[in-house]
Specification:
Elements lengths: L1 H11 L7 H16 L15 E2 L4 E2 L19 E4 L8 E4 L5 E2 L5 E7 L7 E6 L4 E11 L6 E2 L6 E3 L9 E8 L2 E3 L14 H4 L5
Antiparallel strand pairs: 1-2, 3-4, 4-11, 5-10, 6-7, 6-9, 7-8, 8-10, 8-11, 11-12
Length: about 200
Amino acid sequence: KVSQNFKKNRIREFKWPHNNVSRIVFILLLTIFLSGYYPTFSIPPVNLSLVSAENNEQSQEIIASSFPQPVILPHPGYLSTKFSRFHPGVDIATTLGTPVHPVTQGAVEETVVSFWGYGNHVTVLHVNGFKSMYAHMGRVFVRINQAVTSDDVLGEVGLTGRTSGPHTHLEIQKDGKYIDPLTILPPLPDFPKEEFLQPVGG
């Protein structure tokens, strides 16, 4: 009897939320946690520079051709997460170990080796107030103050930090404000090409 009562008391320790709103919030938080997506919150709130091509409402003009070197994708891949107020960058999914290149020439401002948050990541300073950051790398190959071009390799796509699969989380800032990287990057498909669907070794 004692063991049966103990088991009943242990089962009663977890109480399902009483109202529908609490249940919805609980399920939503559980889904976000299990999906591996962790929105970025900051205090003060993330300072965004939103660019609307449709309405031509731009807080500042973004012209990729203003860089001394053409802007490229950091590596082949497809868009897995878009830019938003809660995700101030884009996620470019690809295969594990893919070389990560800077989107254009610049100088390495920061290299971080970490198992948390963005994991291993590199920040590169560019001309005209631009800055780019590449997160979740497996290995980092550059050092602070190193001059880099789009031909150089910053590191390799990995699984460090909070990530549910191999991808590069790319953030771009202009004068301290986050901008949608898609406004200056070459076209990026939002679905995987055939090479990403092939089994490993196939």
